[in-house]
Amino acid sequence: MNEDREAYRIRQVLNFGLQDIPHASARRLEAARHLAISRKKCSEPQLQLAGNSGGISLSTSGHWSNLPNIARQALAILALLTGIWLSFYWHSVQYVTALEEVDSALLSDDLPPEAFLDSEFLEWLTDDSSED
Fold it and tell me: What is the value of pTM for the model shown?
């Protein structure tokens, strides 16, 4: 209700000096207003319910006006999926690299790999580290 009162007051203020404007200028202002309103209606696709052979589906006014939005959404989804794929790929490369480093350290060590499986060796390692 408050918005209606404000709109009424603004309209009164704008109409106050209307008689002082020349008739030709008033016509041009009216034509510019109609042009602006028609451009505003064409630029904003609005969702509306449309019956489609008994079913109800959402459609937008101006069938071709929503193509850039669809293209933008498709590109955003494609970029998101590419980012997810690159993230998984990068993490798998990092994991394999870490495994390679451990394997190469084990194979290049003076100790044979069977020593790490020996329970006495593991006990010796835990006893040795507790003395520090």
Answer: 0.34
